[in-house]
Amino acid sequence: MSIAPTGxxxxxxxxxxLGYAPAHDVWVxxxxxxxxxxxxxxxxxxxxxxxxxVHSPHGTVMSPRRRADDDRTWPxxxxxxxxxxxxxxxxxxEPLYGxxxxxxxxxxxxxxxxxxxxxxxxxxxxxxxxxxxx
Length: 134
Prior knowledge:
26% of the residues lie in helices and 19% in strands. It contains 3 helices and 7 strands; from the N terminus they run ββββαββαβα. The radius of gyration is 15 Å and the shape is globular. The mean pLDDT is 88.
């Protein structure tokens, strides 16, 4: 699911292709990672420092990271920030900027993202709609 700075919510899918990273002894959802990077930070693809990930029981929220040495301007995403705050996602007082990807939570011990089910998509969409109306 993505939340644009305008508050528009879009549900999208990504192929759940897995790859093994032997250097780290982990499986990764490489296609999902690629799709998320292209969605939220197309110019910065390939630089993990350009993406902020916040994990919670409600899912993983990913957004562009604002850095002092970055001349790009990411607009404040009030709807995604409000959604995260409403669900007690630990943002540490830093709001979300740009287009935000909301993924399923991480499994243990594999640390792979689960898919958002229809009920959660509807709940998150309704929350976004209520915040967009403010």
